[in-house]
Amino acid sequence: MNCMTNAVRSISTAAGLILLGSSAIAESAMHPIVGSWASGETVESCDTAPITHFMSDGVVTVFLQKDGELHSIGAWSATKTQLTMTHNDFPLEADGVSNKPVTLEISELDEMRFVTRNSEGAERSRVRCNDIKITMGDSHTHD
């Protein structure tokens, strides 16, 4: 009977962890930062400016343009007032050691505008790009 009880406990614990992981993913997908943001003030920037793509699993990528080269990759997390992210430029080092995280103050964040300030006080404005697909050029498009 003890083996059966332990097996049921193990299954229950595993199911609970899976549910916790699923809800964390669902919550992070609802985070207002998740998505594509172009450097700039207007949605026209989505066609010409660098794109920072914040993914719900904590990965961040920067493309030179929506159909341009991948510039960097890293990880991100945020509170209501701070964005922390790593910025690993290409070419990547073979050792796999990420750059130190950078923390930025979030000075504005709504559905379409995202403004951060670095430790020197310089601000960076981003605009949300809702209707784009990031392709990295023709060689990376798939039908």
Structural description of this entry:
Helix content is 22%, strand content 34%. It has helices at 2-29, 45-48, and strands at residues 35-39, 51-54, 59-63, 70-78, 82-85, 88-89, 102-109, 113-117, 123-128. The protein has an eight-stranded antiparallel barrel with strand order 1-2-3-4-5-7-8-9. The longest helix is centred in the N-terminal third of the chain and has 28 residues, at 2-29. The protein is globular and about 35 Å long. The model is unreliable at 1-29 (pLDDT under 50).
Give a count of the beta strands, DSSP E runs of length 2 or more.
Answer: 9
Which class do the helix and strand fractions yield?
Answer: alpha+beta
Shape, principal axes of CA atoms: globular
Largest sheet: 8 strands, antiparallel, barrel
Summarize the structure.
It contains 2 helices and 9 strands; from the N terminus they run αβαββββββββ.
Topology diagram in text:
Layout lengths: L1 H28 L5 E5 L5 H4 L2 E4 L4 E5 L6 E9 L3 E4 L2 E2 L12 E8 L3 E5 L5 E6 L15
Antiparallel strand pairs: 1-2, 1-9, 2-3, 3-4, 4-5, 4-6, 5-7, 7-8, 8-9
